[in-house]
């Protein structure tokens, strides 16, 4: 079974968030299921610099008249196809933002070109390979099923996975003529969304099937609270909507072999985590203490509930806790956390930015990870936490609700608890969960059971890859 995956970022070549982790891990997991997945991604400078012996296999012209090439390469166990289009991707900023932190004004053109290239690959552009199924990820690839629908490929099975419905790829109606689509595509059954063009809406409307990254999030996005204005469309396609929870790459994230941590360990050698805790305290210039060391590895945004963490920071310190934060995002939230660190030197440490090796050390050295997201389609950091014995404290939403077993009395008695959930997602709700964590941490045996149970969880891609494989097979059966 040949599957073309279309994504705007793929770990380890380029990463800004969890999408890259999923796009990088799923092909490897599917290989054991008899699925050959090739991944098409843009030729950003960071990607081009890492490629080993890429070779040209096809050329095409975008709907805007720009010449593009398809390069092929094998990288980190992945079968990669690169859209080499310097006019769109050879830039000094990031994948989506320029050096000043603003969206590229032609993002619509850049990712329409990616989707158009995917459509042409599905049509048979490559000389020796054609996909049986096309799998698009998020708004950046959402035009793929749109192009397929309106250019005669509607009989080729395709799906779109929504990693976060909040990001929809909305642009003004003036861009539509440049997309190279018939006028009928700009309508209620296509791209039109309150007078604008919405890439994600178009993908949701035209794809054969829709998946998202956890069963609970699949239910949530049918409601006005989580549907981001698209709940009506999602409800109309509810019979073609499936939630498959993400996994993680358990070879990259393995405390027994991780090269980024101070001391390797397993569930049977949790005492070794103490060396990582010490290294983490030193990295953030924190004083040791008897209370728990909490960590945050996140985009610093309202969605992630970072304002709740900033509000609780003084209270955490007053209760004897420590806090280490790694992330970047909203300037106001960055400032609030930096101010908290300035108020509590040796108790709170903040690193603005993203650092992959440091994120591994934080999972290996902190006692608990804080994830008070207001909505969270799946989340990966709680899965890393479970894998590393870093107890997750999470809001009861989306994939967080699906992957963490709350340490209530019944779960603790049955010894199945793996973390702490809370709802509603308010300052009071968050503080209640923190209080429960402080209480459990004061009982070493209880805390060790939470860690051990979390480390026993299967957070790999194995089960999810099996579900995707069966799902792909069901699509092919309809051809």
From TrEMBL:
Keyword Transferase applies: yes
Enzyme Commission number(s) from the entry: 2.4.1.21
Reactions catalysed according to its record: [(1->4)-alpha-D-glucosyl](n) + ADP-alpha-D-glucose = [(1->4)-alpha-D-glucosyl](n+1) + ADP + H(+)
Keywords: Glycogen biosynthesis, Glycosyltransferase, Transferase
SUPFAM superfamilies noted in UniProt: UDP-Glycosyltransferase/glycogen phosphorylase
One MF annotation (Gene Ontology) recorded for this entry: alpha-1,4-glucan glucosyltransferase (UDP-glucose donor) activity
Record-linked CDD domains: GT5_Glycogen_synthase_DULL1-like
Residues that hold ADP-alpha-D-glucose according to the record: 15
GO BP: glycogen biosynthetic process
Matches recorded under Pfam families: Glyco_transf_5 (PF08323), Glycos_transf_1 (PF00534)
Gene Ontology cellular-component annotations: cytosol
Presence of the UniProt keyword Cytoplasm in the record: no
Domain Starch synthase catalytic: from-to ranges: 2-235
Pathway(s) of this molecule: Glycan biosynthesis; glycogen biosynthesis
The Glycosyl transferase family domain, residue ranges: 291-437
Function: Synthesizes alpha-1,4-glucan chains using ADP-glucose.
NCBIfam families listed in its UniProt record: glgA, PRK00654.1-2
Similarity comment text for this entry: Belongs to the glycosyltransferase 1 family. Bacterial/plant glycogen synthase subfamily.
Identification of the protein by name: Glycogen synthase
Native organism taxonomy: Bacteria, Pseudomonadati, Pseudomonadota, Alphaproteobacteria, Hyphomicrobiales
